[in-house]
Every structure is written in structure tokens, then in C-alpha cells.
């Protein structure tokens, strides 16, 4: 396994991040729809906000994964945040998700002081659920018919990690 490096995403990463989300399996695990545009990703990565920290994982200079950590803006929920993560199809199962999770949790715990992180994961995403559970996330409930994907409705689990 080659070394995975995680760093903050830069605006010039937009083409590589677009490729991550253009991977069929990676895209199917998100709420996105096929055929996202490079321009949308350029705009997303160009906007610097204190409540959203985009990270990329790369190997030998090639971006292979993306994670966006978002802090809730409401003053009563600023102790918590959520994130979305995707790994390019050809890099799934090779430690990229683990590296992104380690970096995001270090940021959340040691720099942002977050005590709660939550997420939604499709109920049929066994690899994703296993990854989150390894990092202390627990299921809090199931959203029935949460999203429409590939011609059918799919359930999603709400998961959270409390520190």
C-alpha cells in the first residue's frame, strides 16, 4: 500500500475531485446525481468558509478521495458537525477512507472542539458502515426511503460519534 497523504483541498483540485465524484460507486454513495460538472466543484472548492473544511487524500500527487467536514452554524449546535466522504472507485478498500477519517477526527477533536459528529450512510453500504463503526460511530436510527437511487428508494442509517 502506498502512503496516503491528506491535506486541505485547494481550488485547483476541482478537476480531480470531480473525477472522484464521477466514479459510479463513489457517486452512488452520496446524495449527488450523475454528471456533476467540473464548474460546480471549482466553485465549491473556491469558497473559503470557517464552517466547512474540505480535505483531499492523495497518493503521489494524485487526488483519490475527498471529505468535507462541516460545523453546524446554529449557536446551540456549534459543538457538533457532520461530513460527507467519497473515495474514487479504483482506490476503495485501500486505506483512503481510513486516512481521511483519521484526519477529519483529529481536526474535529483537537482543533475545532467538536463533541458530536453525525452522518447518514445508505443502509446497503456495508463498507462505509464498517469504517464509521471502527471510528466509534453508532447507529441512532434508520431513515426509511431516504433517497431515490438507481430507480428505487433506499434507506439510510443516521450514525453519530460522541466524544
Describe the fold and architecture:
The chain has 5 helices and 7 strands; from the N terminus they run E-H-H-H-E-E-E-H-E-H-E-E. It is of the alpha+beta class and 163 residues long. The chain has a domain at 5-117: 3-Layer(aba) Sandwich (Aminopeptidase). A 7-stranded mixed beta sheet has the order 1-2-3-4-5-7-6, sandwiched between helices. Strand 3 and strand 4 (80-87) form a beta hairpin. The mean pLDDT is 94.
Which tags fit this structure?
7-stranded mixed sheet, globular, 163 residues, Aminopeptidase
Write the layout of secondary structure elements.
Layout: E1 5-8, H1 14-22, H2 24-28, H3 38-46, E2 52-59, E3 62-71, E4 80-87, H4 96-110, E5 116-122, H5 126-134, E6 138-149, E7 152-162
Parallel strand pairs: 4-5
Antiparallel strand pairs: 1-2, 2-3, 3-4, 5-7, 6-7
Enumerate how many helices there are, as a single number: 5
Principal-axes shape call: globular
End-to-end distance: 31 Å
How many beta-strand elements? 7
Percent in helix: 25-40%
Spatial ordering of strands, largest sheet: 1-2-3-4-5-7-6
> Radius of gyration over alpha carbons?
15 Å
Structural class category: alpha+beta
CATH topology title of the domain at 5-117: Aminopeptidase
The CATH superfamily of the domain at 5-117 bears the name Gcn5-related N-acetyltransferase (GNAT)
The biggest sheet, with number of strands, parallel, antiparallel or mixed sense and barrel status, is:
7 strands, mixed
| Approximate strand percentage | 35-45%
Q: Write the CATH architecture name of the domain at 5-117.
A: 3-Layer(aba) Sandwich
Mean pLDDT across every amino acid position: 94
Amino acid at each position: 500500500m502506498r502512503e496516503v497523504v491528506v491535506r486541505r483541498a485547494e481550488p485547483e483540485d476541482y478537476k480531480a475531485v470531480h473525477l472522484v465524484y464521477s466514479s459510479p460507486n463513489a457517486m452512488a454513495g452520496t446524495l449527488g446525481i450523475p454528471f456533476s460538472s467540473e464548474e460546480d466543484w471549482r466553485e465549491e472548492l473556491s469558497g473559503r468558509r470557517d464552517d466547512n473544511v474540505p480535505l483531499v487524500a492523495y497518493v503521489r500527487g494524485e487526488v483519490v478521495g475527498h471529505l468535507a467536514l462541516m460545523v453546524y452554524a446554529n449557536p446551540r449546535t456549534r459543538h457538533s458537525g457532520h461530513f460527507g466522504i467519497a473515495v474514487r472507485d479504483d482506490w476503495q478498500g485501500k486505506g483512503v477512507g481510513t486516512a481521511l477519517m483519521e484526519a477529519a477526527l483529529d481536526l474535529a477533536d483537537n482543533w475545532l472542539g467538536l463533541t458530536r459528529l453525525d452522518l447518514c450512510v445508505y443502509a446497503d453500504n456495508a463498507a462505509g458502515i464498517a469504517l464509521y463503526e471502527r471510528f466509534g460511530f453508532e447507529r441512532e436510527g434508520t431513515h426509511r426511503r431516504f433517497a431515490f437511487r438507481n430507480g428505487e428508494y433506499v434507506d439510510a442509517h443516521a450514525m453519530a460519534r460522541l466524544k
